[in-house]
Amino acid sequence: MSQRSSDRFSSRAEYFETLEDESVNPSTEPTLGDLINRRFSRRDLLKGMLGVSALGAMAVRPLAALAKAAETDAPANEGAASRFGFDEIPHGVDEDHHVAPGYRAEILIRWGDAVMADSPDFDVRAQSAAAQRKQFGYNNDFVGWVSLPFGSDNAEHGLLCINHEYTDEELMFPGYGRHQKDFANLTREIAELEMAAHGGSVIEVKKQDGAWRVVADSRYGRRISGLDTEMRLSGPAAGHERLKTHADPTGTRVIGTLNNCAGGITTWGTWLMAEENVNKYFIGASSDLDEVANHERMGIPGNGYGWGRFHERFDLGKEPREPNRFGWIVEVDPLDPTSTPVKRTALGRFKHEGAESIVNKDGRLVVYSGDDQRFEYLYKFVSAGRVDPSDREANRDLLDHGTLYVARFADDGSLTWLPLVHGAGPLTAGEGFNSQADVLIETRRAATLLGATPLDRPEDVEPNPVNGKVYVMLTNNSKRGADRLDAVNSRADNLWGQIVEISPMDGDHAAPTSTWDVLVRAGNPADPGTSAMWNPATSEDGWFACPDNCAIDPQGRLWVTTDQGNGWKKASGTADGVWALETEGAARGTGRMFYRVPVGAEMCGPCFTPDGKTLFVAVQHPASDGTKDYPGFERSSTFEDPATRWPDFDPELPPRPSVVAITRMDGGVIGG
Ligand code: FEO
Ligand code: CA
Ligand code: CA
Ligand code: CA
To answer: Cys-Cys link to 438, which of 31, 199, 225, 433 (CB 3.0-4.6 A)?
Structure first.
C-alpha cells in the first residue's frame, strides 16, 4: 500500500473515514452480501418479498417463515405486535439532541469534566496533558456498566467504563484551524494532550431522586490513557521477539491503549477495551523489512497523527515493532484503580470493534469481535477454562487460554467457525507462521488462508442472553464493486449496511457450526435503489442506515445505534441515533426511532442498567462529520466555527463529546 497523506481532507473525520473504507485484504472469497443474494435468489423467496416491496417496503423474517408466507400468501406483517411502547421521533438533523416523548435525556459527563478526585477544572483555553490525564477524555464510544457492590444487580449505583476512541484537534484547540497538511500546527504539548485524551475513563455514578450524577472524589475514578498507562501483554504472543522494542526488551510491557472503540464487560466485572484503528498512529517507513507486509495488512502506517515526530515509538523507522503491540483486546479491572490493564493476545490482533461475551452453557466464556474494515472478518474466542461465578479471582487469566475462530459463511445458511491454531491447515512455517504468536500477531493473514468470509465492515457483535442469538452489525461497504454483485440484489456501493443474526447450534456458542440469517438490510425501504429490506410495518422514521453499536435490554430486545459518517445525507438524510428493532414474531424487522444526536455526531455506547430503566448513550464527535451537508452551515467545523456547540451552547465553548443518561419521566422501563 502506498504511503497516504491526510492533506486532501479538511477534517480528521473525513480522512479517517477514507481509511476505514479501503480494503487491505487481498482475499477473493465471496462477500456476505454475495451470499445473501445467492440465498434469496436460489430459494425463490424473492417472489414473496417482491409483493411487499411493491408497497414500498420489504419484509425480512426468518427464512422458514418467509417460505411459509410465500406458500400461503399470508401478509408478511399480519398480527405484528410491537414489543416497544414509545412514540418515535422523526428523522431530522439540527444542533440539538432529541429523545422520544415522555423521556428525559440528561448530560452525565462531558469531555474535560472531572474523573479523578484531584482533577483540575476544565479550562478550554489553558489545556494541558497533565490536566487531561485526570479529566474525561475525548470521543466517548463504548459504555459499560458494573453494579456496586459488585455481584449485586443494583441499577442505581455503579461504575461506568467508557472508551475514548480518538481526538479531533480542530474542534479541541483554539486557533488550531482545520486538519493540517503534515501536522503543521502540531506541537509536543498538543500531541501529548491528544494521547492523554485517548483511552478510557472509569466513573462512579448514582441515581438520586430520579437523576443521575457522577460521584465526586470517588475512589474508583480512573483515567486510562495512550500517554502513560502501563499495561502488561499476556497470552501466547507475550514476550515474543516481534513484540520487543528498545523501551521494552521483554516484549511484555507496553505504554497505553489507542483507538478504543466498542468493548464489553465480562461476567466477572472486568472491562474489555477493543483497540480498533491503531494504524492511524504510526508514521514513517519500517526499518524492519520482515514486518512490512504485516504492517500493510493492517494499513500501517496510517499517518493520521503526527505523534511520531515527538515520540519515537510511533515512527516505524525507529520502532518497527511497536505497532505489533496494538490491535489487541485490553482487560481492565475497574474495581481496582491500581490494577495493571492486560492486553490479552489470545484474542488476536486486528481492528477489534468490540468484545461482547456470553457464558456458554458449558461454562466457558465466548467473546465475539468484529474486525471493522471493508472485507474483513468476524471472530469468536472460546476460553479453555470455565467461568467461576463464585470466585472473581479464579477468572483473572481465563482469557489467556482458549481458541480463536474466524467465521466462514456458506450460502446455504450455515456458518463454520475455523480455528486459528498454529500447525493446523496452512498455519505452518511454510506460510511464515512459526508459532501461535505469529498466528495471533498476523490474525488477518491467517484468517484469509483459512478461507474466512470477507464482510461489509463488521462493527459491534452482541450475543443476546435471552434468545441465545448473536447480532452482527455490518455497517456499510461503499466500495463494493459491480463485479461482485449477483442478479437478485444490487448492493454495489452499499451505503447502508445490514444486520446478520447468528443462531448457535443447540444454543452452544462454542460449537464449530451455526446458522445465520439476515435481520434487516438497512437503507430507505421507499427507495427501490437501496434494495432495503424491512418489515412493512416500519414507519418512515423507523428505518436507519449504517448500524454500528447495539445493546440488548434486560427483556432481550435489540437496540441499534448508527454511524453514517460524512455520508449521512446520501445514506439516510437523518442524523444518527438509537432505534429499537424487533427481532421476534410477525413484527421482526420493524424499527422505531428513539433518540437522535446533534449534527456531526455519531451514536455510540448504548448501555442499559440491569433494571432497564436507564439507557446510557455516548454522543461522539458532535459538529464533526458531514457538516458540509448541513443546510445553512455547509462547511467544515473548527473550534471557533462549529456546526453546533452542543451540549453547553456556550459561545466560549466548543462542542463536547458527552455521555447522556436517558430515563422515563414516569420512572418506568425504557421502551415499556
Ligand atoms: Fe470505531 Fe468501527 O467504529
Ligand atoms: Ca463503531
Ligand atoms: Ca454493545
Ligand atoms: Ca462506524
So the answer is: 433
